[in-house]
Amino acid sequence: MVKTFIETATTEHVQAILPSVRQADIDEFIAASGQTPEEVLNLALRVSTRAWAGIADGNVVNIFGVAPASLLGGKGIPWMVGSDHIDLHKRAFLKGSRLALVGMLELYPHLENYVDQRNHLAKAWLHWLGFKLEDPAPYGVQGLPFHRFHMEKR
Fold first, then answer.
1. What is the total count of domains within the chain?
2. Which side of the chain, N or C, has fewer Cβ within a 10 Å radius?
3. CA distances for 100 relative to 1, 20, 97, 114, angstroms
4. Which pTM value belongs to this model?
5. Which domain, by its residues, includes 26?
6. Cα 16 from Cα 87, distance rounded (Å)
């Protein structure tokens, strides 16, 4: 049986996931900010209210969290970086996603961020979680089409 769990994300998790970050995530980082996965993840750990690592069979499957959108509160920016190991642990990933979303909405009753139009799996996952995806518009340093996505606590 596969041992899966979620724990607080650390810089060690960042180093562990780097060799297997999904190409779609790398493409999204470059299009949005021009940054490498290591730069994006280290920044995310520094600015996030909470950040977690999903572990399965000793591998870092994903690192995810939520950061404040402003100092005024109420709005959070959810984020997730996946590894190629996600495909091997889809059921645990999906179950954990729903649980993590509940926790994020407790911290921030309004969640919003952007997803690359080319990242079809991420868009399907966000839709499955219940996020509303808006029509794509130019975004980021490359001006490629991204969807703004958002959700309000019910």
1. 1
2. N
3. 23, 22, 5, 18
4. 0.94
5. 4-152
6. 17
Summarize pLDDT for 87-139 with one digit per residue, the tens: 888 888 888 899 999 999 999 999 999 999 999 999 999 999 999 999 999 99
Q: Tokens representing 78?
A: 């959810």
Tokens of 136: 């794509």
What CATH number has the domain bearing residue 126? 3.40.630.30
In the predicted structure, residue 2 carries a pLDDT above the cut 80: no
Query: DSSP character for 21?
Result: B
Q: What are the structure tokens assigned to 154, written together?
A: 């019910």
**Cα distances (angstroms) measured from residue 30 to each of 16, 43, 64, 65:** 20, 15, 18, 20
Over residues 60-100, the pLDDT tens digits come to 999 999 999 988 889 999 999 999 999 888 888 888 899 99
CA 116, CA 102: separation in Å to the nearest integer?
Answer: 24
